[in-house]
Amino acid sequence: MSSEFEQNLEKYAEVILKVAVNLQKGQRLYITPHGGFNASLINLVPFIELIAKKAYQLGARFVEVLWNDLQLNLIRLQHAPRDSFEEFATWRRDASLDFIKKGDAGLSILASDPHFFDDQDPELINTIIKTYVKHYKDVSFLLNQQKARNGAVISASCDSWAKNVFPNLPPDKRTAKLWDKIFEICRIKQKDPILAWKNHVKQLIVRSNYLNEKQYTTLKLKAPGTDLTIGLPEGHIWGSAKSTSQRGIDYVSNFPTEEIYTLPHKDKTEGTVKMTKPLNYRGNLVENIRITFSKGKVIEFEAGKGKDLLDKIIKTDEGASKLGEIALLPHSTPISQSGILFYNGLIDENASNHIALGFAFRSCLKGGKEMSDKEFMAAGGNVSLIHVDCMIGSGEMDVDGITKDGKTEPIMRKGEWAFNV
Amino acid sequence: MKSEFEKNLEKYAELIVKVGLNLQPRQRLLIGAPRSSAYGVPIELAPLVRLITKNAYQGGAKLVDVLWEDDQVRLIRYQHAPRDSFEEYPTWRTNAKFEISKNDDAMLLVAARNPDLLAGQDSDLILTTHKSFYKHNKPSADLRRSGMGNWSIFPAPVKSWADKIFPDIPSTERIAKFWDVIFDICRVKEEDPITAWEKHINQLAARSDFLNRKKYIALNYNAPGTDLTIGLPKGHVWKCANTTTKSGITHTVNLPTEEIYTIPHKDKVEGVITSTKPLPLEAFIDGLKLKFSKGKVVEASATKGEVYLKKLLKTDEGASRIGEVALVPHSSPISQLGILFYNVLIDENASCHIALGNGIKACLKNGLDMSKEEFAAAGGNQCLFHIDFMVGSEKMNIDGIKQDGAAEPIMRKGEWAFEA
Which domain holds residue B115? Predict the structure, then answer.
């Protein structure tokens, strides 16, 4: 008889492969640390072995794990020649490209310690990240913009992450507690998690359909410290949980997901917004952020700890100082209600309304996938190497939509949906 | 305060980087380059891998990357994957190896696996995965054999392997015992292992220099079950421990190493040879007996794994010919341990051995610059693989045959029979 934990882990693996990845018989599956630096896969061996076994049982042709060890990145930062940080081994990137281009299924895992690189030289970290982002440009484009394959980003508990989330628990209880929370927010503890997910996805689609019919020209966001107007481009599309790959396979790319999202017009954001949670950029935190926009561009910002990093993020390229996403979700979602800061973008973004600095998703614009960069930008879509989510929602946020003829309609009140579907 | 074990592990890491690789500043290093039986280095070895990485960066390496593998994921594939899918190979791993060799960078291979991992799995599937590896590995192997890049292979214990080798001691002590043996046979416990290795390599070099001066045209092997003549090509070179890349980096390909080896003439092997230890392939072969005529295996049998052996011999034209002869005295420290490690890297240093398959180009004068055709014309064998099997024992006599047909003793009862 397996323990409750083992049963939940089995269910989690199953929901990941059946609902999130939607692994097809005969597909290969490749497993990576999300974003290169957001997990040490070698710390997740039993979980990955379980995924591999289930994947083969579901008919996967081959399962390949691009194992990594973040300790090695730390050793590099401590001991490698100071002028060597633009060095980049292209074979892992090429491996991803190869899998993606062949339409294989992908799974990337988040399990990062936000303080892991705290004591290291931020200049060197920045060089490593910039080099990574540059080399992964094509991978990112194929995944985010072309939806070249079915796949998902998921989270897995481990000691180094859990100690940040539950610092007050005894060390030997933290990892199990974090697994338990992951199971909760991913609806694993429900009687039939697969059915629960199917229903949840359906509800999100109904909400996004409503907003798509409305075609608001503008959103107005109001909360303490926030008074922001976001123009939406013509032909914008609200997306949610479900994506469809080029090969016609439905998948849930972010797991869990609670959000409905679209792209802002890159030149039409005005006003000030206050972040309600710290920004987590590849393991580095920026706290107490307030940003002011004019004509879509960041013209001023304040931050507490990590302000330099925010400055660097915004200066990455032209598009890094403009918005590429606005996402709405109720304050009453399981993640938000847990009241826990997970220090994990995938989970935390589903606790709150958010905006993203950087590139916009082409799937959020009618005809977007077929547009050149130039055409996409002309239509209001933002282009950048980065996409950084910033949490702005709370139980005090009101959101209004402005219709084409200038009428104001409520979308959210005090952080909850204000329209019926 | 560091424990004795931690100190030895650090010394081992340093030995691997400095003597094994002779890693140069500004080189890249790939740890865990794939082999036929492994995709990479076992995750269990992370502590050693981190020490090697640190040592490499401190020596000025500009990038270190590690290809990892988990044994269970490998086993799960054999248990659950579709039967027609075993040609699938993660080519990015062999591509990484290729890039490293192409740029004259460094790579480490690791001998660390559970010899019984795939016991009971379909040997056809195992053979398919090996063939797939050899196919994808060929471009990088060709570069490496032509002298591109410094590389080395070293052993390290993993739990499952230690369980197999030391079944008679308590389970919790096996891995420590195994490490201890490895530190011993790799001379890590010497106060200055690097100097100890220099001395050891000089002693081996004195023997290979002696044989190089002799320019024997053939070797005669005699032992129970063995009566074999191996012709040596003109311009053959006896080598030991060290190899030098085209760019001039001298490195030690095998840690540990006790052997002196050269290339046989692919068409000049006559007679019968019997193996003295099992072949530690993923599908075991034991009691191997091969009959050669004009260099080619004409009869093959084995007490275990005969089916696999016969398929292996048919891999390609060169698979049924030999590519290496190596001499190791029976009194070598590894041999004296009396332990069968089920691992070529260690076991081959316990015994005289020969290899089926690819000939070592560096063992032929100007071999590194030869085209395929020139190498073949000179007597060099070419094959997708190179598989060592042990033939030495305390009953083995080996003679060298001079140009004029006279025989001179090289080994008697498994020991050197000449002074160098």
Answer: 4-185
Chain B residues touching A80 at Cβ < 8 A: 57, 61-64
pLDDT value at residue B284: 78
Token pair 């802002």 is at which residue?
A264
- For residue B37, pLDDT over 90 is answered with no
Q: Is B191 contained in some domain? A: no
Residue in chain B nearest A65 by alpha carbon = B69
Give how far A58 is from chain B: nearest CA, Å: 9
Q: How many domains does chain B have?
A: 2
Q: Are B178 and B165 in contact (CB under 8 A)?
A: yes
Q: What is the mean pLDDT of residues B349-374?
A: 93
**B82, B196 contact by CB (below 8 A):** no
Do the domain assignments include residue B356?
yes
User: Do A95 and B90 make contact, defined as CB atoms within 8 angstroms?
Assistant: yes
What pLDDT shows up at residue A112? 87
Tell me: do B273 and B402 sit in the same domain: yes
Vertex B235, ends B230 and B239: CA angle to 5°? 75
Closest CA relative to residue B94, chosen from B137, B128, B51: B137
Q: Give the integer Cα–Cα distance in Å for B93 and B103.
A: 16
Q: What is the pLDDT of residues A224-248, one digit of tens each?
A: 999 999 999 999 999 999 999 999 9
Asked if residue B162 and residue B120 are part of one domain, the reply reads yes
Ordered by where they begin, the domains of chain A are 4-185 (3.40.1830.10), 214-240+256-417 (no CATH)
Chain A interface disruption, residue of B10, B28, B55, B92, most A CBs within 10 A: B92
Complex prediction ipTM: 0.89
pTM attached to this predicted model? 0.90
Of B46, B49, B82, the CB nearest to A61: B82
> Is the residue at B202 inside a domain?
no
